[in-house]
């Protein structure tokens, strides 16, 4: 059972606002994972056990447990009301509780109401092409940037990917940093307010801050936060200080000391735990976070991950590959069409339904109707897949065009010395 606190935070119809939305109707899709009681340690790897680290997400993700064990806060109906006031209409990813947890978002809003602005900070580890799961927090970041008229710092960690992957080389991770930046720009971020940091190229901007941070974090803290072992290379052990640095770069560049708000999936949270501990010692605000869930892959469970290309949709995939991947996706369908028409299918386990839920059906009524027809056996998996492939390919066609155009303007996003 969910605790009352979590139930309320997830927008149960008993919540204070009495908010009725698609989440109430399709709550099972998310609460199925959220409510389960498990007693094993978070790092246990057996029996489909949950592992959530910045470098690995495995097993069935229990988001309620992550809130408890990471020590974050659930996003409450009260917080949603505050966000709605500032943004006119609640963003779909909040309305559906895809963004479900935070640290100090309330403090950032308190400060904003008192006239203290904030900056946004997020990033990408360029280990390969961008997949549509990465777009989830970036689309939300763009929304917050537009509504609050605020600056974004975007870090491309070609150094991180080089250090953590034995087979990676710097030339390749730097090449992907450029490729991944095109995806960010294609989403519509404007150069006036968007500053892209390429770690290996811009390290001069980060290095003094990184040193201040690194000096104040002990090995024992990083070992317990990140699970480092005796065999971990020392570059990797030092590296978290580099991901911390952009939280504080705004002051260095402008002289203005304001908090950073970081939208990202919850796998990145360990970085912010160590950074928040030392921020006040350096005279900065603690960086705030807003965490999203993982868009699943097209297989059975697990997040979409570049290391599993057959179950991931990359932004550069051509239409026939997209169709093929969708066609092979795991669904909640039955063995035969006749059986499915009779007993219906189960959208709660279906990877295809999640894509509509996260990105490809913005209309709550239409989403609810899709779910109803699926459960009633009126909508078969073939039709649902065909429809999704068409939507995805339409989105990708436009994205790929904008991505090409981004090549002409990418220099405008570099930080000028
Ligand atoms: P990376 O490249 O692993 O992921 C980039 C961003 O995408 C999120 N993400 C997902 N979100 C939803 N569904 C998924 N399936 C999914 N997979 C990944 C990640 O949480 C992340 O927000 N070390 C970082 C790069 C980085 C960064 C940052 C990220 C540097 N500074 C600040 C966030 C905020 C990394 O390797 O991200």
Per-chain topology:
Layout: H1 4-9, H2 22-25, H3 28-34, E1 51-53, E2 56-58, H4 63-70, E3 73-74, H5 77-87, H6 92-95, E4 99-103, H7 105-113, E5 119-124, H8 132-148, E6 152-156, H9 158-164, H10 170-186, E7 194-198, H11 199-215, H12 219-226, H13 234-238, H14 240-244, H15 249-254, E8 260-265, H16 269-278, E9 288-292, H17 319-327, H18 337-343, H19 351-360, H20 364-376, H21 381-409
Parallel strand pairs: 5-6, 5-8, 6-7, 8-9
Antiparallel strand pairs: 1-2, 3-4, 4-9
Helix pairs in contact: 9-10, 10-21, 12-16, 17-21, 19-21
This protein binds tryptophanyl-5'AMP.
Tryptophanyl-5'AMP binds next to strand 5, helix 8 and strand 8.
Question: Can you walk me through this structure?
Answer:
With 417 residues, the protein is α/β, with parallel strands linked by helices. The protein has 21 helices and nine strands. The protein has helices at 4-9, 22-25, 28-34, 63-70, 77-87, 92-95, 105-113, 132-148, 158-164, 170-186, 199-215, 219-226, 234-238, 240-244, 249-254, 269-278, 319-327, 337-343, 351-360, 364-376, 381-409, and strands at residues 51-53, 56-58, 73-74, 99-103, 119-124, 152-156, 194-198, 260-265, 288-292. The strands form two sheets. The protein has a seven-stranded mixed beta sheet with strand order 3-4-9-8-5-6-7, with helices on both faces. Helix 12 (219-226) runs antiparallel to helix 16 (269-278) and helix 17 (319-327) runs antiparallel to helix 21. The protein is globular. The model is unreliable at 1-46 (pLDDT under 50). It binds tryptophanyl-5'AMP (TYM). Residues 54, 121-125, 133-134, 136-137, 155, 157, 160, 243, 262, 264-265, 267-268, 292, 294-295, 303-304 line the site of tryptophanyl-5'AMP.
